[in-house]
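To close the chapter, one final illustration. This time we ask the reader to focus less on the individual chains and more on the assembly as a whole: which components sit near each other, and how the overall shape emerges from the parts.
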Amino acid sequence: MTGAGGHPPRVRAYQKLIGATFMLATIVGACLVLPALVRWAWDLLQ
Amino acid sequence: MQIIIGIILVALYVGGVVLFFVYVAKYILALVAFALSVAVVVNYLRAVGANLLWGEGPADRLHWREDQKDQESAPEPAFRQYFFDKAYQDYRAIVHDSLSSNSAAALLAIHSGKALLTGEHALFTWPLGLVLFVTVAPAAIAAAVVYAVTGAAHLLLVIVLSSVTVVLAAVLSLLEWLGRKIRGITRECPHADCYQPYRLPVYVCPTSECGAHHRNLVPGEYGLLRRRCKCGKDLPTLAFFGRGALQTLCPKCERRVVDPRWPSVHIPLAGGASTGKTGFLMATMVELNRLADVGRIKVEFLDPQYERIFARSRQVFEQGSLGGVTKTAAFSPDAFLVEVSDRQADRALVHLYDPAGEAYQKSDALRLHRYFSHARGVILVLDPFSIPRTRDEYERELGADGKALRPSREDPQAIYDLMIANMRAHRGTGNGRFKVPIAVVLTKADGVDLHARLVRRVREVRRNGARGKRRRLREHKSQVVRDWVREQGLDNLVRGIENDFWKVRYFYCAALKKSENGSKGPFRPRGVLEPVDWILEHYYLQVLAIPGRRETRRLVQ
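The assembled structure is written out below.
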């Protein structure tokens, strides 16, 4: 059983699992890291 | 005045440039580095989305090739499980796509810097252009670090999930292996000239135009619970999910085999030519089926060929004539397979081997009978009329009815010696005693008054001794047959058997016994199931068991 692109549903499920996990982790990570990074850079430049 | 204005403008210009480099440039540098780093992350996420979420990434690929050698280590005709191949292809595609976008962003920065340095307003914008050029290098380093961290995090995620898959595959394989080990399920080829044990059969893809051979259909790199065949068909990787329903082949000889779901019990029939092995085998099958008909056990033929053989046997027994049955021609026979299930739902896949008696005349011919290496029991078929003393005793009856009885001309001792030498050679047991049981079966006992004499003796023994349970009756029968065989001068044979095997029991049977209607009625076999039942008891299966009188036995390995 394959999807429209030729991959079976479970391959798509794995792809979406990795894609969504990675995106979420990156966005959460950026939200956590960026303010601290910006503050550090700002302090450095002053 | 104009000069003063010019000097002031130049001073302002130089001052502005200096102020720009002293106070503003560092913020622009930080801003560009930040923007490039964010662009890197955004580009990476866009590539992830394009390849994994709203796109499907590169096409899956097969490692199998049409012209490859068909062996266990070769790639299977299936697509690898996502985390064993395509996840890394997707990763490469994402890294490649995001790198292209990052290069485009870097080029945009360079072009912008160039335009600021060389354009119409270059006089006013050159400091910005210069800062951009100076900034691109450290900003690119910062972006590269962010890119590497993002890529590494992605790769780490893929590796972690792949590792989880590997562990799950190993656990599932281990569980299935343990299940087979605990239940004593083994796999051996039942076919002539092969008889080899194997780890896994070759599973054939059920798609008619495909029919690909899968040599290692277990949880692993091609799938955890299912794998995708090269034709796109999903195949289960575990027996629990129906793998046993696929057609299976022996990996050694490529002939069709049954994938056992229950312990395999291999029982060779040993005996010279015309000792009545085939009659005994046919009678056993007919009697097993008769018990199944009355609901005492369940019998299942896992392959149509065995069902056809059984149907032929039943027809012969109903007709009461062996007219159409030819003697066994195969020196090295295929096993007759039947799945038997008793009242307690214990099951076994019983393999019965009926080689031509001539195979027991030459050790060379018998050497091919490798099934002795995994035999779980032996039935030694003994024609009483092959014993010289019995033949002499019944000379008159044999003269009159000799054609019907077809006494075997082969020396039982010689047959046994060949069999035991072959068994020792295949099992490598030296001179030790075998743990597998051996049933010594006296056939053709109904041909003369021998059957009646043995029955009388058993009654006498039971009259004189304590009447016991069914098991005691069998022991009495065994004792009577043993004594009778010794009386006929086969003392050495009895001693030899009892020295070679720990578990020996003697039986008599009448495989082709006619019903009371005389010679025209169907065959009504007597005592043929007892030897098979006794052997199967050692493997938790009791085909003749009476409900409520079950006895647990240790599994003989």
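The two ends of chain A are 61 Å apart (CA to CA). Helices of chain A lie at 9-45. With these observations in hand, you are ready for the problems at the end of the chapter.
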